[in-house]
User: Which sequence fits this backbone?
C-alpha cells in the first residue's frame, strides 16, 4: 500500500512514492512502467522499516522519509542510495506513523508531524536533536499535514478531535520561539490537510467530515477566493401579487352562459355536414342536363352521341329505298345539286323494285334487335 508521494520541485517529470515494502521509489512520468531508482529504508537493527511519508527538499537535493520505527532519514540525490546522509533514529515514538515532513524555504529547517501527538522543528545542519517541540497535538489520521508559511516565519498544523467533543483547529507556531501565535477554529471535526499557497497567500483546509474551507486576507491575498467575492449576489426579482385575490369566471356556471355558447361545437358540426364542400359530399346523379352535361346516354357527350347513334340507327339494308325516300322532297325543294344542273341534266329514270328484292327484306326480329 502506498503511503504518500511528492513531486520533484526542480524536475517536473520526476516524483517519489513510499509504500509498505520499505522503499521509496523514484519515478519518471514519461516512463511510469519502471522506476528510476529505489531507496531501501532500514532501522537501527539493520532490518527493513516502513516509510510512512516522503518529501523532496525545496532545492530538490535531498529526499526525506519518516519511518514507522520513529526515525527520520535524509538521502542526498547526488550520491548512491546505500545509506542515508542524515539520520535521527529517535525522532518520534516507535510504532507511530509520522504523517508529514516539510522543508523550510531557506532549506535549513525541517518540520515533522508525528503520530505521537507532537510537532517538531529540526535543523538539518545539526540533526541530532530537535530545535523546538510542541506537544499535546492530537492526531488521529496518518495524513495530518504541517507546513511553513510563505514568509518562512511560522509553522502550521491541524489537530484532531473526537466526534461531538470539540472543534478541530488550525494552529500557527512561530518558527523561532515556537510559541503559538494564533489558532483558527475550523469546524466540529478533525483538521487533516492544510495548504498555504505561496502565490495566492491563501490557506486551504481539509476536514475529516468532507468539508474544505479556504481562508484569505482581504488585502494581502491575491485572486483565488477573492475572484468569487468580487461578484455581487444577484437580487431575486420579487413578483408583485395581491393576497386573497378572487378569480372571476362568469361563464363557468351554466346559469350565466349564453344560449349561443351551449353546444356551439355540436351545432357547428351539424351545419358543416349540410355544406357539401366542407363535408366532401359526393355528387348526386343528375336529373336534367345543365352546364353542358347531358342525362340520356351517360355522363359525357361522347357516350351520349354513341348511344343515340346506336338507338336511332335506321335500317340501311336497302340503300335504294333510303335514297328514294328523299326524292320527292329534293324535287320540290332542291337545295344542293339539283339547282345547279336543272337545265343540263336529263330526267332520272329509276329501276322498278322486283318481287325478288322485296322478299329479301329483313325479318321483324332483326329490325327490333337493331332498334335496341
Assistant:
Amino acid at each position: 500500500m502506498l503511503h504518500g508521494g511528492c513531486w520533484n520541485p526542480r524536475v517536473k517529470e520526476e516524483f517519489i512514492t513510499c509504500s509498505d515494502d520499505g522503499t521509496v521509489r523514484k519515478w519518471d512520468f514519461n516512463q511510469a512502467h519502471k522506476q528510476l531508482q529505489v531507496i531501501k529504508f532500514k532501522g537501527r537493527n539493520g532490518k527493513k522499516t516502513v516509510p510512512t511519508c516522503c518529501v523532496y527538499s525545496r532545492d530538490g537535493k535531498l529526499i526525506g522519509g519518516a519511518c514507522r520505527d520513529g526515525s527520520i532519514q535524509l538521502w542526498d540525490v547526488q550520491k548512491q542510495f546505500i545509506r542515508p546522509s542524515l539520520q535521527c533514529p529517535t525522532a518520534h515514538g516507535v510504532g507511530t506513523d509520522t504523517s508529514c515532513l516539510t522543508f523550510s524555504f531557506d532549506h535549513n529547517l525541517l518540520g515533522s508531524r508525528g503520530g505521537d501527538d507532537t510537532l517538531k522543528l529540526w535543523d538539518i545542519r545539526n540533526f541530532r536533536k530537535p530545535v523546538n517541540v510542541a506537544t499535546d497535538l492530537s492526531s488521529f489520521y496518518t495524513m495530518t499535514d504541517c507546513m511553513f508559511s510563505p514568509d518562512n516565519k511560522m509553522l502550521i498544523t491541524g489537530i484532531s478531535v473526537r466526534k461531538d467533543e470539540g472543534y478541530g483547529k488550525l494552529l500557527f507556531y512561530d518558527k523561532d520561539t515556537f510559541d503559538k501565535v494564533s489558532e483558527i477554529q475550523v469546524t466540529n471535526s478533525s483538521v487533516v490537510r492544510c495548504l498555504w499557497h505561496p502565490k495566492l497567500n491563501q490557506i486551504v483546509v481539509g476536514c475529516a467530515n468532507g468539508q474544505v474551507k479556504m481562508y484569505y486576507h482581504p488585502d494581502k491575498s491575491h485572486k483565488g477566493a477573492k475572484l468569487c467575492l468580487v461578484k455581487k449576489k444577484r437580487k431575486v426579482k420579487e413578483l408583485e401579487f395581491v393576497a386573497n385575490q378572487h378569480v372571476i369566471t362568469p361563464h363557468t356556471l351554466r346559469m350565466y352562459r349564453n344560449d349561443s355558447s351551449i353546444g356551439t361545437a355540436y351545432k357547428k358540426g351539424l351545419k358543416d355536414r349540410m355544406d357539401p364542400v366542407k363535408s366532401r359530399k359526393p355528387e348526386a346523379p343528375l336529373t336534367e342536363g345543365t352546364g353542358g352535361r347531358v342525362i340520356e346516354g351517360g355522363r359525357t357527350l361522347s357516350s351520349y352521341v354513341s348511344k343515340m347513334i346506336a338507338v336511332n340507327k335506321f335500317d340501311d339494308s336497302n340503300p335504294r329505298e333510303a335514297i328514294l325516300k328523299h326524292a320527292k322532297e329534293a324535287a320540290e325543294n332542291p337545295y344542293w345539286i339539283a339547282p345547279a344542273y336543272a337545265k343540263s341534266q336529263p330526267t332520272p329514270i329509276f329501276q322498278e323494285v322486283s318481287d325478288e328484292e322485296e322478299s329479301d327484306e329483313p325479318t321483324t326480329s332483326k329490325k327490333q334487335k337493331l332498334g335496341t
